[in-house]
Design brief:
The protein contains 3 helices and 7 strands; from the N terminus they run βααββββββα. β2 and β3 form a beta hairpin. α1 crosses α2.
Length: about 140
Amino acid sequence: MSMDLVVLEHSVEFAATPAEVYRALMDSKQHAAFTGMPAKIAAKVGGAFSTCGGNNFGFTLALEPGARIAQAWSHRDLPPGHYTLVEFKLSKSKRGTKLTFTQIGVPRRAAQWLNRGWSEAYWQPLAIHLDARHAS
């Protein structure tokens, strides 16, 4: 079966170091804290993850602490057995960290809600979470 696939790209900045952003994404407790949903992340290459209460799941393909995360990523609403490739690249910026996100292999029919989901469920609450950590 052939699917029409697209690529999603986001670029966001956070007032935190690349190491802090990396930890928030890869630490189960911090991930659960900023999304408000359970997360179980084996923070190692080959490790499985389940985030947002099991809605998102997959395996970590590559890790460069403080710099890069690559994962085979799926969602409960994607076709069974369909994984996308996600990459989070972290670099220093004037504000703190620039996160460049790419998701390859997204079914076109899921692109709109996934795009919105990354912004609403990840980038916005992550910014609030990181800002709160720096305010204390």
